[in-house]
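User: Here's a protein and a ligand (sodium ion). What would the complex look like?
Assistant: Let me lay out the input and then the predicted complex.
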Amino acid sequence: QMILREMEFAIEQKQFSIYLQPIYSVVKKCDTSAEALVRWVHPKEGMISPARFIPLFERNGFIVRLDHYVWEEVCRLLAEERDKLGRVVPVSVNVSRLDFYDENLLEFFMGLMKKYDLEPWMIKLEVTESAYTDNPQQIMTMMRRFQDAGFKFLMDDFGSGYSSLSMLRNLPVNILKIDMKFVQEIVTSFRAAKIMEHMVQLAHDIHMEVVIEGVETKEQVEFLQEIGCDEIQGYYFSKPMPKDEYIERLAGSP
Ligand code: G
Ligand code: G
Ligand code: MN
Ligand code: NA
């Protein structure tokens, strides 16, 4: 309880800030979306990485409150793009498995769309593959309702350990985001490279798009172009950046 009150205080103090990492389209040869990644700028500890606090927040339940905050901040960003630039580049947000326990999740998103005068295609939902193992039936039902409303889903970290082909068969996911382990091993592991190639092929055959994240070298980019992946996210193109820097970058590109 004590901790939760401190967390709420941290939100009020604006200690959490949203960073955006642009995602590059291989086909269009420009950035076509971005992922929102939260950062905690702690008054005493400085910048704390989500890898440290997200697991903690998933245990104490605070992640639900934080995610709602992040989604709203992202909507404010999208509205700012619309007002300042006259166009909107879609952003994907992370959705924790705990968020799906809320029966009114879709209503919350629709409320944001209304409040900021946005459309569902502008915000994509990224759910890590391990989340789906929790209560697949409930998540699937919820996802269908989101899709009927016009939202798209990405399956995050695909191939990291919980993936099964029945997930691909059953879940209404639009975009597959392949775990960065694969791309990091394409040079050293023949298997990683081949699996990657065939995952892209498989995804396309079932009408899903593919995003590869964690891309850091030119060699990797060339390989990914060759195997036909759709979008690339990684330090090679850009690191996650603060909101103002992201808007400036958008303003300077077509
Ligand atoms: O940016 P970084 O690699 O440090 O992120 C670490 C992890 O934290 C990633 O798995 C990412 O999906 C997760 N994460 C980042 N921002 C958010 C967020 O706003 N909500 C949730 N639920 N997870 C996030
Ligand atoms: O779990 P999720 O995929 O949402 O988290 C993505 C994480 O990967 C973020 O924490 C982000 O900071 C990190 N990331 C983004 N690009 C790269 C990259 O090129 N290399 C590495 N090692 N990490 C990256
Ligand atoms: Mn993600
Ligand atoms: Na990931």
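Summary: The chain has a mean pLDDT of 94.
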